[in-house]
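Hey, can you fold this one?
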Amino acid sequence: MNINDIATLANKPTRLITKSVAFEALRHLINGLAAEDCALASQRLAELYSFFLQKITKPKTVEQWLTLALADKFEVRTFLRHVYSDATCVVATNAHRLHLLKINKYPTGFYDPALNRMLDMDDIPYPDFNRVIPAGGSSIDILALVNDAEITEMGFRDSAPKFKWAYKLKIENEDIGYNKHYLDQALSFFPNVTCYYKNSVSALRLENNQQIAVVMPCKLN
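Sure. Predicted structure:
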């Protein structure tokens, strides 16, 4: 079978292709290849597989970096879709990761994601975000760990593909999963970052003089 045969088959009526179906087809193809065939095709398969990996758009400002951690439009807890200021810092979180910017120019309250407008949400309490920022821990070279990490699917209660991946980081002889998209976004605009690790069930804390990011560990498939 050659590329023309594949094109001919593809042109025939088939079931509606979805991202889920395409992903399962690719996984079946990879698992079905003999070891020697997979070695020859690994680069091309990697290029195809990369289609399913979430892409990172590098923020242009530290404020854009901050808002990457906001919850999406489907989050029912609407306060997590907005930036919050306590007059000493501004914070964004979706309850699984947190970005904080040490800046005191915003009075206490909620702000739109562009930080242009204070919102009328004074009656809504914001969680005590300081409680989720882990203290202490040992310093680790997060950039080197990410560079050497295996990428694997995140684990969920059901088996349906979610197209969410994790870094499997080897820390103190343990394999610990962290959401790849969250960690990539945290590192996307973070000069002079220092990362602190406490234990396998605690969040990573990334920090410099102006920023803090917190990324919770995740289940691996």
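The first helix runs from residue 3 to 11. Let me know if you want another pass with a different chain boundary.
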